[in-house]
């Protein structure tokens, strides 16, 4: 077997028209981010090259800093992967950085912290068309109540109540370092002060399946007055998805911003 070189990529993508990060073996016709990357590598290597992502973003979820890796024969490790990928990938996926890394690096298992952003447009009218694919439209919200509720969710806790089924885990305990609202931001973009937009940044050592979207669904219900902030500890303590009264927030508002190693 030839010597291999591991390549690390940092990606940005608009997830609107994709069925998520991961290729679907039961539905191979669906477009995925992983599938688009592996399509480029198939043309480059002549055989399938598996791409491993740091996070399996759901259908419709975006990214500004997704990380992945793949192995390529060492004699091809010097290729300009940034130029090659960006010349072939569709315009809603872009490679931001490509570099050679040690064979021990793993995009998923070596990750120490992840940062997600969830954008809300909170007004009586729906979000502007340019923001609609990236923000959840809601009525005006009680941000102070949402901040109080978010305070019950930080720290090391069992987040089983916020996990949707589909991906088994040895443990549902995670550490959520912070939940921070940033007014006037739509993901990484600064907006005019008059726009009723805000982005909630969630940083943690890891996230369960749809955990961020379930947290934001609950916070929105708190902001609407449907759940009191004081009810949140009991929801966490239940360790049961059925205890969560609110719906999962739409994928469109969620962006994977950054992964720290």
Describe what you observe in this structure.
The protein is of the alpha+beta class. The protein has two domains: 4-101, Alpha-Beta Plaits (2-Layer Sandwich); 113-260, 2-Layer Sandwich (Alpha-Beta Plaits). 19% of the residues lie in helices and 31% in strands. The protein contains five helices and twelve strands. The protein has helices at 33-45, 81-88, 143-151, 211-223, 232-238; strands spanning 4-13, 52-53, 62-73, 93-101, 113-122, 136-138, 155-158, 173-183, 185-186, 189-190, 197-204, 254-260. The strands form two sheets. Strands 1, 2, 3, 4, 5, 6, 7, 8, 11 and 12 form a ten-stranded mixed beta sheet that branches. A hairpin with a 2-residue loop joins β9 (185-186) and β10 (189-190). α3 packs across α4 (211-223). It is globular and about 60 Å long. The two termini are 30 Å apart.
Main sheet makeup: 10 strands, mixed
Strand content: 25-35%
How would the global form be characterised? globular
The H-level CATH homologous superfamily of the largest domain, spelled out, is Pseudouridine synthase I, catalytic domain, C-terminal subdomain
Helix content: 10-25%
Counting copies of identical and different chains, the oligomeric state is: single chain
Q: Which residues sit in consecutive blocks of at least 5 with pLDDT less than 50?
A: none
Examine the coordinates and then state which fold CATH places here, giving the name of the CATH topology of the largest domain. Alpha-Beta Plaits
Output the number of helix runs: 5
Mean pLDDT: 95
Based on the coordinates given, report the CATH architecture of the largest domain: 2-Layer Sandwich
